[in-house]
Amino acid sequence: xxxxxxxxxxxxxxxxxxxxxxxxxxxxxxxxxxxxxxxxxxxxxxxxxxxxxxxxxxxxxxxxxxxxxxxxxxxxxxxxxxxxxxxxxxxxxxxxxxxxxxxxxxxxxxxxxxxxxxxxxxxxxxxxxxxxxxxxxxxxxxxxxxxxxxxxxxxxxxxxxxxxxxxxxxxxxxxxxxxxxxxxxxxxxxxxxxxxxxxxxxxxxxxxxxxxxxxxxxxxxxxxxxxxxxxxxxxxxxxxxxxxxxxxxxxxxxxxxxxxxxxxxxxxxxx
Length: 271
Fold this sequence. Notes:
- It is a single chain.
- The chain starts with a helix and ends in a 6-residue tail after the last helix.
- The protein is mostly helical.
- The relative contact order is 0.15.
- It is globular, with a radius of gyration of 33 Å.
- Helix content is 64%, strand content 0%.
- It has helices at 4-21, 50-66, 70-77, 80-84, 86-116, 120-147, 179-197, 206-223, 229-251, 260-265.
- The model has no long low-confidence stretch (mean pLDDT 85).
- The protein contains ten helices and no strands.
């Protein structure tokens, strides 16, 4: 008599093979096929920090410390020997023009060169520098209008001649802070920082040369009797802090898809 278990084994093996050949329709989907949760939006660091406030506060204190010497510095700058020196007068004219319109023309030239050569990094350097000068100009213009400080030529004996909000319409009361100095330091700081952020090559002397030119711009404004020494100190602080704010705003976003301003104002790279 034939064993029934042996008879079952005869058809069990083909049945198991058939089952293994069926598609695994009930198997769970692979990890790559699963819908992953959306990634959280990027978290950017704050644009304005306490470091900026402390730095601007330090320049404000420095300007206040210089104010008692404003009249003495102005007398030195307006001495006959200083004013009659052809060398000093020509140098003052050069750096007065450098502060405005010089840095604006240089910024426009850098941006245009980036477009002409289709190099986005160069164009971005000009764009970021222009943004820094624009921000510093807005801050300086607001301070000028609010402070209403008389320029040295308008009130040579009274460096403490302040009239709140009189600088909104009166150009002779737009002494504090120095706009030319602000623009020159904003240009220097933006160029120095953006060169490094964008990975562009920069000679070691570029930063010191630009800051030196900005300092000479402030001296030229005092030579022209347009600003007190404390105006120049405060202008330097506004320019430096503006560069920090703009650079920090953009630095964390370079790895993100370009925003509309970059898509419209920056060229596409070659090739």
